[in-house]
Amino acid sequence: MRSAIPSVSLAFLISALYQPALAALAPVNPAELKTTASDLIYTTRQGDTLMDISQQFTGTTRNWSVIGQRNQISNDRTIPIGTNIHIPLTLLPDEESEAKIVAMAGSPVIRPLKGADTVATVGAILKEGTEIRTGKGGIA
Question: Are 110 and 118 in contact (CB under 8 A)?
Fold first, then answer.
């Protein structure tokens, strides 16, 4: 027997019901974030959910419950605006850092983690773990 309720696309229903959760968070100015020895602290804005916050800072929505427990929040959808959310630093993804040589003196040498030594040049991009040897009186 068929239901008297008209069929509606499941994707449409989900989209309509969870539109705030599906919207991306506005970019965060790093100067607005605080840190402690163990946490990154984010101040909530209108419409924030733990799932959104988890996605933005940890790269996955799966960490929302851990963040909720850390902040004693049981309902993902009722976070007051202006609440400081503590996000454990252990949940943040590792990202390789880079540095650019913008000035130098002498003849510094670059020693990457893998590969041969090369002479440093202004503008060179150094990957995380690269060693710079400046020699006496040199800078980079």
Answer: yes
User: What is the spatial distance between Cα 121 and Cα 58, in angstroms, rounded to a whole number?
Assistant: 35
Residue 104: pLDDT band by 50, 70, 90 thresholds?
A: confident
Structure token digits, residue 132:
């710079």
- Over residues 39-43, the mean pLDDT reads 95
Q: What does 6-57 look like in DSSP terms, one character per residue?
A: PP--HHHHHHHHTHHHHSPPPPPPGGG-EE-SSEEEEE--TT--HHHHHHHH
Q: What is the rounded CA–CA span in Å between residue 12 and residue 7?
A: 11
Q: What is the pTM of this model?
A: 0.56
